[in-house]
Amino acid sequence: GMSPMAYLRAVRLRRVHEDLLSVDPDSTTAATIARRWGFAHYGRFGASYRQSYGRTPAQTLKAPRR
């Protein structure tokens, strides 16, 4: 029920989210992870991420780990 580009964007956002939750926040940035997954424009990426996950990528990166 979604276009191929929308599907690809959703997969890439999910991968970024997984990486943000699993990396050491002192050794990388949210922008670096976003670029790794092909998001060239951080502002648009950040808006899509926030719409999907309810917080910014940086907030996810810095969230306490379980």
Can you walk me through this structure?
- With 66 residues, the protein is mainly alpha-helical.
- The chain is 67% helix and 0% strand.
- The model has no long low-confidence stretch (mean pLDDT 95).
Q: What sort of overall outline do the alpha carbons produce when their principal axes are compared?
A: globular
- Give the overall average pLDDT: 95
Tally of helical runs: 4
Distance between the termini: 34 Å
Q: C-alpha Rg, in Å?
A: 12 Å
One letter per element, helices H and strands E, the order comes to HHHH
Summing up helix and strand content along with how strands pair, one would put the structural category as mainly alpha
The major beta sheet can be summarized as: none
Q: In percent, how much strand structure appears in the residues?
A: under 5%
**Helicity level:** 55-70%
Low-confidence residue ranges: none
Number of strands: 0
What's this, in brief?
The chain is an all-alpha fold and 66 residues long.
Features:
mainly alpha, 66 residues
